[in-house]
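Dear colleague,

Following up on yesterday's call, I've attached the two folding results inline so they're easy to grep. Please treat them as preliminary; we haven't cross-checked anything against experimental data yet. The first protein's sequence and structure tokens come first.
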Amino acid sequence: MKESELIESLIQVDDEFKKLYFEHRKLDDMVKDIEGKGTLSFDEELEVKKLKKIKLSLKDEMEKRLRQLKQS
């Protein structure tokens, strides 16, 4: 099973994974919106860094769940 198929199946059956996935996507959209402004203020740069750190932690948790599924 491909990883994209695993993700789709987890979204359907695992509410926690679904929450992580959509929160990650939401943060990704927020980062793109801020970065799309061009030149960022200092506060905007800090906000982008903060959002990217949160995104990374969400991605790490999703990867952990995917690994667990692949092992079982």
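Below is the second protein, in the same order (sequence, then structure):
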Amino acid sequence: MLRSSILLLFAALTAFSLTACSKPIPPPGHWEGGYSGGGTLVAARVEVEADGQVKVSAPDITNLQNAKPEQLQQQRDILAADLASGWDSVVPRPFDFDGKTFRKPGGIAPQMVWDKDTNQMTLEIYIGADPALPVTLRSVDAFHDNPWPSG
């Protein structure tokens, strides 16, 4: 009786330790969004596949500080069209995932940050030598022609 209890306890501790040391699984799903500010526009999509591979595309346009509102809207429309038309050619790739942050394999810089509680993804865009530009993405069941939220 004592021996079987010890074996059962050992089996439970072994299972717990294997689970505790296992690599976090990336959350499968689709996220999209856009950024507009400081003369920069970004249209973005992210798809995390069931096997953990990630498709990401984020075309951007910079130096629009002096653009008129109608020019900005035209550029947003162009980015949205480029994002949608180029999506099928985006190749999935691996990322290291720690349960919250996605990094290039072996990399240090965050590429995406996932908030489990809200299922929100933030894409970190690196343009030139500037610090990372966080682009907040929303979870969607399917991608839209226009990644910017309406209204």
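For the second protein, one point worth flagging: The helical segments are 2-20, 69-86.

Best wishes,
A.L.
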